[in-house]
Amino acid sequence: MITTITLNPSVDRSYMIDDFEAGQIFRTSSYGATAGGKGLNVTRVASALGEKVLATGLLGGKSGEFIEAELDKVEGVSHDFVKIEGETRSCIAIVSAGGGQTEILESGPTVSERDLERFLTHYKSLVEKSSIIVASGSILAGMPKTIYTDLIKMAKEQNVPFLLDTSGIALQEGIKAGPTLVKPNLEELEAYVGRKLVNEADVVRAGKQLAENGIVYVVISLGGEGSIVIHHNNVYRVRLPKVEVINPVGSGDSMVAGFAVGLARNYDLIQTIKLASASGTANAVEQSTGSINLEKVQELMAQIVVE
Ligand code: TA6
Fold this sequence. Notes:
Its EC number is 2.7.1.56. By secondary structure, the chain is of the alpha/beta class.
């Protein structure tokens, strides 16, 4: 079973406003709220691809109750979150014409030492039950910046593959523990190496630098431009078909879900890359954040080019 970890879940609110501009007043008739945060987008997409998923993390308040109620509706998803005193956050995505997006991400509540300890005890009990662990998203105030490092070490002790998709200091620290896979976007990779990456050869060099931490798969996501995947000494340039983008939010998370499913099913790497890339693209053509249509994924897989 795939276990997803969302340390900082979110009620994701999306607003479709074609001509959005800061400083004006807009009314929108097309909006939605989903159980979000990166790990919960991964959860929904991995279960839509047909895998059993257990979602865990930390939830609090009315927002936490909304998220659990939403997860109860998803086929193939079970959830077992630690309840905390704070209120789980909301994140806003304003999607304009052509799929442009403006995101406002709340920082989320501060976790108490007691609640953090409860989560770590809970996590330890889940590791051996997991075939693969996927941890995605930012961390809560009150958590050590090394939280992902600690979680990865506990998974590696039990030989459970650990996929990590986060940013900033949490990513820099998590990388040191050598997760099985990381998926930085270009901005996160530039922040990691501390320099602007001016061409694809430079991106590959930076990705290989990242892989030196014992990371088996380094996936550098490039939005509509596809991705670069580094696996040992092999470098793959992945190109996507052109699609009409409706809401790209959650496409990186959908890609991570595809990798988790491909690895859980022991697909070969090319097949896994195609499933991941098709899942990310399939999310972008849906209005709802972190959702895919399975037939669309299969149709898109045939159009993914891996060099
Ligand atoms: O990747 C999209 C998304 O899940 C948004 O829906 C929003 O929840 C955001 O990421 C949260 O990102 P963060 O890095 O704060 O966990």
